[in-house]
Amino acid sequence: MFFAVDAGLRSYAQNRIASEIDAKLPAGVTGDVDVAIGGTSVIVQYLTGSFDRVELTAPALSVNDVPASVSIVATGVPTDTSKPIAHVDGAIELDQAALNTLLQTALAEADAAPAARDAEVELGTDEITYAGELSVFGLGIGYQATATPSVTADSFVITPTDARVTSGAGSLDVSGLIDLVLGDEPISLCMAGYLPQGVTLSGVETTPARARITLESSTLTLTEQSLTTLGTCSPA
């Protein structure tokens, strides 16, 4: 009897948490969040004031119309939602088309790498490539650049490491064009503006299929204010 009641309460608690999170998603974020409560008896966990482990998954989330898959593991989740969760680890997965949509804004605004503007990025294993064309003395010259992905606490960063001319150079000296493609500074995409304040980026991995950006927090609560107050990025 106890186990049946406990299972029923676990299901109720999972649905209740999912409903509250769905209702408190930041502006521009839509989708359904599934919740799974781990650990031993939910009744015992509730009486001690904290859930051992709560997993949140949203395989079809939309962030400002950009599709993303999100997974979160929270440990030490207080039943009092005003108290911070002990620790949160998570990941955001973006396919190539979604990453292109997000990066185009950053590329268009990146003074350090004007050659990358309007270029389409292509994902590889722990690298990103992008190709485009620049006009030199009225002559269109194609190029391809290779970059390394990384993160800071608030931003996704791509640092061009190599570039080559692919067409149209003829006998022109293209050293200046290569320098232009490489740029002086990495290209940075602010991610904090899509995440609750206090959530920081911790790493990134890329494959030809997707980019996986990991994140963490030890200050997040499940209150509406915490979930809907988005972070900001440090000035470049």
Task: List its traits.
alpha+beta; 5 helices; 236 residues; single chain; seven-stranded antiparallel β-sheet; elongated; 2 domains
Protein architecture, described:
The protein has 236 residues and is an alpha+beta fold. The chain folds into two domains: 2-95 and 195-228, no CATH class; 97-190, no CATH class. The protein contains five helices and twelve strands. It has helices spanning 2-23, 42-48, 96-109, 175-182, 224-228, and strands at residues 29-30, 34-37, 50-63, 66-78, 87-95, 120-124, 127-136, 139-151, 155-167, 187-190, 200-206, 210-217. The strands form two sheets. Strands 1, 2, 3, 4, 5, 11 and 12 form a seven-stranded antiparallel sheet that branches. A five-stranded antiparallel sheet has the order 6-7-8-9-10. A hairpin with a 3-residue loop joins strand 11 and strand 12 (210-217). The radius of gyration is 22 Å and the shape is elongated. The model has no long low-confidence stretch (mean pLDDT 83).
Termini distance?
Answer: 60 Å
Order of helices and strands: HEEHEEEHEEEEHEEEH
Number of strands: 12
Low-confidence stretches: none
Helix and strand content put the structural class at: alpha+beta
The gyration radius over C-alpha positions equals 22 Å
The proportion of residues forming helix, as a percent range, comes to 10-25%
Number of domains: 2
Total helices: the number is: 5
Mean pLDDT across every amino acid position:
83
**How would a textbook summarize the main sheet?**
7 strands, antiparallel
Strand content: 35-45%
Shape: elongated
